[in-house]
């Protein structure tokens, strides 16, 4: 992250250590503009530490809290690991910001919490569905599934950023892994949390039996075993698949996860025309990967980080990205039988995926917080259903055709993906 090493500032307190490392990467003045660059590969104004017994943030019960937005595909990664890892939800409670309003064109004042007086029934330790109903709340402040800040009664997420670093000049993004003991941010980079949360609490999680996630009756996995040594490694990043995971992650992050944002926030016809074919080239490639490897996951019988990364984008594709970001060369449900089947399996059959997905938050965030794209803030009703039902799931992916968008430029870009 910077030229200042943790060792060089080792003598200071944990909060000051992380703040000192962070200050060296801040922008020169003011909150960063709300532009597509925020979504490309993480922000330079970020905290990159981890929970570890060898560092300033040891794993402890009741010490940490995860702040997320149910709308955000990048925060969704961390929330998915929290849902999938048995016992992790009990150790890592969540607080959920409202999906809108976001603020002005510079992202100020940023994401909000409902007030502490709001009678939100969302359980911040909730291990089940994120959807809730608030019947007795202040109607102006409530939002189903959003939760007040239980630590400081903050109204805005930026209050936590300034508590961690009073001189902060960056963005106020989710996810945020927060340390309640030193009152600072541990990490706010979703890719790192996706990896770190798989193992960072292992030494204080129950050791009796399997601590791997349930993968569902229709999603067999070779991950499941009772070998405690395996729990010391990220189960979604198994050693024998790491080379392939790394290679696919490169283009998936560039062309799919952030590719939809390049298309959606394009300000010229030229930039839009350049972005959209790359999105569908990545989907074409993913379609073939699932078919080649036989499912039910992208690399076959083992769930990996690729499934987490892809799901957070694909589950939003037909509902948001097709219409809102104009990624409309095709849809998942009509043009990608393999991906659609993969999506149905994860959403309906693998515990944690449906429970961490809230389409009200997703739809209303995009359509009501991007005034430059949707100035009337009207949220489309469709598509319906958001994810097609489980009855059509096919466990033998060989029976499904291999779909894709056949536009020549898309096919040309697909050929270049490794």
Automatic annotation (TrEMBL):
<dbReference type="GO" id="GO:0005737">
    <property type="term" value="C:cytoplasm"/>
</dbReference>
<dbReference type="InterPro" id="IPR036249">
    <property type="entry name" value="Thioredoxin-like_sf"/>
</dbReference>
<dbReference type="Pfam" id="PF13409">
    <property type="entry name" value="GST_N_2"/>
</dbReference>
<feature type="region of interest" description="Disordered">
    <location>
        <begin position="208"/>
        <end position="234"/>
    </location>
</feature>
<dbReference type="Pfam" id="PF13410">
    <property type="entry name" value="GST_C_2"/>
</dbReference>
<feature type="region of interest" description="Disordered">
    <location>
        <begin position="105"/>
        <end position="150"/>
    </location>
</feature>
<feature type="domain" description="GST N-terminal">
    <location>
        <begin position="71"/>
        <end position="198"/>
    </location>
</feature>
<dbReference type="InterPro" id="IPR047047">
    <property type="entry name" value="GST_Omega-like_C"/>
</dbReference>
<dbReference type="GO" id="GO:0004364">
    <property type="term" value="F:glutathione transferase activity"/>
</dbReference>
<feature type="compositionally biased region" description="Low complexity">
    <location>
        <begin position="117"/>
        <end position="134"/>
    </location>
</feature>
<dbReference type="InterPro" id="IPR036282">
    <property type="entry name" value="Glutathione-S-Trfase_C_sf"/>
</dbReference>
<dbReference type="InterPro" id="IPR004045">
    <property type="entry name" value="Glutathione_S-Trfase_N"/>
</dbReference>
<dbReference type="InterPro" id="IPR016639">
    <property type="entry name" value="GST_Omega/GSH"/>
</dbReference>
<keyword id="KW-0808">Transferase</keyword>
<protein>
    <submittedName>
        <fullName>Glutathione S-transferase</fullName>
    </submittedName>
</protein>
